[in-house]
Input
Amino acid sequence: MKTLVTIGRGGTGKTSFVALMAKCFIEIGDTPLLLVDADPDQNLGEMVGVDLKEKGKKTVSELLVETFLEEGGTTVGVAPTERIENKIWTHGVYEGDYFDFIALGTKWVEGCYCLPNAALKGALESLTKNYRYVLIDSPAGLEHLNRRITSKVDDIFDVLDPSKKSFAHVERAHRIAKEVKTDFKNFYVVGGFRFPESLEGKAEKSSKHEFLGKIAYDEAVEEYVLAGKSLLELPRDSLAYVSAKKIMEKAGYIKR
Ligand SMILES: Nc1ncnc2c1ncn2[C@@H]1O[C@H](COP(=O)(O)OP(=O)(O)O)[C@@H](O)[C@H]1O
Ligand SMILES: [Mg+2]
Output
């Protein structure tokens, strides 16, 4: 199992990149995948065509609240980690043909419940063992690195926007990830769809981290998002998809 996480400022294209990475893995049959929406905005579901509510599923934070705050999870015989893991399996995981999907939800992201957090970590660790890849879509900002739901990560993809700040973001994110001892193997930098080509040289040279390329601007992505259509259904020659494939090649996930 490998865990891949996107980070970056708001609107840089993190969520759509997660959907495109999923599409890459699905197309080459490198599955099963677990997609994790860790952003309280929760738009990864829409980008991969999953409406949890409609499927009768709940977010992990809803399940945590039910299990530990409403039902008093500490007193019952079964260990907290196991209880929440069972709950997530039965009520939190959307199971699709090519990928499964869970959303962490807002309550958990906002709150700070030590027992649920610890239990959740344990549950996620064992839950994710069943997959080939776990792709995590993070919220903007870096606070979530502190919470370390994802303490073992293989690749971090920092998606850049066109601003100068995003170069500063790279350095800060890398430092924080180290400071909170997130155990990651690779820290990659990716140009977001609005990242200008003219800055690619700078990204390659100035950064201490490997620059994998740029996600192409693609009108079809905008149209699909507006129409609420799954990005997994983009045509194979879609500019954004083709560029994402190149990025995944460079990161060693797809053979040429
Ligand atoms: N490759 C792309 N080409 C054109 N527009 C894009 C592309 N990727 C994302 N967008 C547009 O930008 C918006 C924000 O993208 P999103 O992936 O949600 O960013 P983030 O998760 O970083 O906030 C999307 O709603 C979509 O309209
Ligand atoms: Mg997002």
User: Anything to note?
Assistant: The longest strand covers residues 152-160. The chain has a mean pLDDT of 86.
